[in-house]
Amino acid sequence: EIPGAPGAPLDVKCLDANKDYVIVSWKQPAVDGGNPILGYFIDRCEVGTTHWTQCNESPVKFARFPVTGLIEGRSYIFRVRAVNKAGVSLPSRVSEPVAALDPSDRARLRSHPSAPWTGQIIVTEEEPAEGVVPGPPTDLQVIEATKNYVVLSWKPPGQRGHEGIMYFVEKCVAGTEDWQRVNTEIPVKSPRFAVFDLAEGKSYCFRVRCCNSAGIGEPSEATEATVVDDKLDVPKAPGR
Amino acid sequence: SPDDGPEMVPGAKAFTVSAGKHAKFRCYVTGKPKPEIIWQKDGEPLTPGRRHLIYEDREGYFILKVLYCKPQDQGLYVCTASNTAGQTLSAVQLQVKEHRLQF
């Protein structure tokens, strides 16, 4: 550090990036060393290398600089040094890496699909005694009901085994005992669930079961019957 | 642990569990968009039920758990992953060892 030189510039960012240039911006250092800042030097480094290159020959005054001469598709980090008549500051902290790519190419690369890959299946044996099947959830409630969906909420059970529990939601047309699992494939992790695909004009009851790796538990108490019709599609009063 | 016995399907390792114990199948899957997973036994899809748990664990592995294994749980288990870019599978052979009391 040179006595009388400025502090390091702050908050180096890339404002805009494409394949031809990256616009780097920064904030002036907190201390100027007692001498006015004459300008800045911008350095770049290709990610994966340790070679820093100075981008501008003479200091720039404006706190924003377009860096050119980048190789398309490569990623770079940037840092900035401030200059006054006493000398050059220490370099700033480096920017986040940015790729020299047009925005459309960046989006395409990001969303480019890749075919699945499956690893070797490993089978392990577990002692049944280790797992405790969770008990039923409690306080199951319909917290929102419209003609398009019903939102249920409940509390986790007391008896839950060692691990995280997940839930299966079941529905049934009121008056029947024909319970159908709503989320057939994947148990839900949070203690609330929105049920869609309800037939307008029908009346439904709901119940929830817990599961963990030890098994699926007994169902909760069923809700009161909820009639699916237009009258439900009324917004709640504010504050409720 | 992997069995040294003959493999019944080329490329499918064999594992043995004891009757009455749980068998946990663990498979890591990658792909974009996130693949859909189907577990099958001897060509038949497995659905979640009292003895079959199907879930994704916290580390991102896809898990099939067969509870209280019986001799009829023996067979070829296949995990098929598919997305818009393609499909692939991994297979494993499960053997269930029965305990016979000796007098």
Task: Describe the 3D structure.
The complex is a heterodimer of chains A (240) and B (103). Chain A has one helix at residues 103-111; strands at 10-17, 22-27, 39-46, 52-54, 64-67, 75-84, 87-88, 98-99, 114-118, 122-126, 138-145, 150-155, 166-173, 180-181, 192-195, 203-212, 215-219, 226-227. The radius of gyration of chain A is 31 Å and the shape is elongated. Chain A is 4% helix and 41% strand. The mean pLDDT of chain A is 86. The two termini of chain A are 61 Å apart. In chain B, β5 (52-56) and β6 form a beta hairpin. Chain B is built from no helices and 8 strands. Chain B has a 5-stranded mixed β-sheet, with no helix packed on it. In chain B, strands 2-6-5 form a 3-stranded antiparallel β-sheet, with no helix packed on it. At the A-B interface, β9 and β10 of A face β1, β2, β5, β7 and β8 of B.
Q: What distinguishing features does this structure have?
A:
heterodimer; A: five-stranded antiparallel sheet; elongated; B: mainly beta; three-stranded antiparallel sheet; disordered N terminus
